[in-house]
UniProtKB/TrEMBL annotation:
The keyword rRNA-binding applies. Forms part of the polypeptide exit tunnel. One of the primary rRNA binding proteins, this protein initially binds near the 5'-end of the 23S rRNA. It is important during the early stages of 50S assembly. It makes multiple contacts with different domains of the 23S rRNA in the assembled 50S subunit and ribosome. Keywords: Ribonucleoprotein, Ribosomal protein, RNA-binding, rRNA-binding. PANTHER family: 50S RIBOSOMAL PROTEIN L4, LARGE RIBOSOMAL SUBUNIT PROTEIN UL4M. Residues 47-79 are annotated as: Disordered. This is Large ribosomal subunit protein uL4. Part of the 50S ribosomal subunit. GO terms for cellular component: ribonucleoprotein complex; ribosome. It comes from Anaerosphaera aminiphila DSM 21120. GO terms for biological process: translation. Coiled coil: none annotated. The keyword Ribonucleoprotein applies. Belongs to the universal ribosomal protein uL4 family. Residues 60-71 have a biased composition (Basic residues). The gene is rplD.
Length: 207
């Protein structure tokens, strides 16, 4: 069972805890991670791009020149795809790219991502993140104290306005709650900072 040191907001060690081996010490399934990340990125797509086919481009109803006798290639319309200003072959149309991945695959992928963070020493457990006021400077001070990478995912147990808004101006920092974490965010950010209470929520939900 993997062990990890818990630190406070000043970066000082507080205690050592054991992580749930069913979540933080499994055989990493890279294919499941790939499937889930692909699914998340597909669901993020707006699907609003559109182009006109030759039937939708205005004009081109008259044959540009007669079929035979000109020495040129036969043409039926100046809106054919090979013409400048013509329609697009297999033009993209608005569509919904979202789909679902099986729940079992999503759970395996999440556990694999969390396990990789533990093995790469990129997980930081903080006893509590408490912001008395909305101040980005104090949040950055906390990140530096716990020796976090500039690109960090901060996970807390419940929605805390002071914490969320203190981090909102930091481009490479994302704050979320334990029940909203996903594989893409875990892998995207170099440091995975999580509070003790949020850790318990993760273990309860995904064990």
């Amino acid at each position: 069972m993997p062990k990890i040191q818990v630190v406070n907001m000043e970066g000082n060690p507080v205690e050592e805890i054991e992580l749930n081996e069913n979540i933080f010490d499994i055989d990493i399934n890279e294919h499941a991670v790939y499937l889930v990340v692909k699914n998340i990125l597909a669901n993020k797509r707006q699907g609003t791009k559109s182009a006109k086919t030759r039937a939708e481009v205005r004009g081109g109803g008259r044959k540009p020149w007669r079929q035979k006798g000109t020495g040129r290639a036969r043409q039926g319309s100046i809106r054919s795809p090979q013409w400048r200003g013509g329609g697009v072959v297999f033009a993209p149309k608005p569509r919904d790219y979202s789909y679902t991945t099986p729940k079992k695959v999503r759970r395996i992928a999440l556990k694999s991502a969390l396990t990789s963070k533990v093995r790469e020493n990129e997980i930081i457990v903080v006893d509590n993140i408490n912001m008395e006021e909305i101040k980005t400077k104090n949040f950055v001070k906390m990140l530096n104290a716990v020796k976090s990478d500039k690109k960090a995912l901060v996970v807390i147990s419940e929605n805390d306005k002071n914490v969320f808004r203190s981090a909102s101006n930091l481009a490479d920092v994302k704050t979320t709650t334990a029940d909203m974490i996903n594989v893409y965010d875990i892998l995207k950010y170099n440091s995975f900072i999580i509070t003790k209470d949020a850790l318990k929520v993760v273990e309860e939900v995904f064990n």
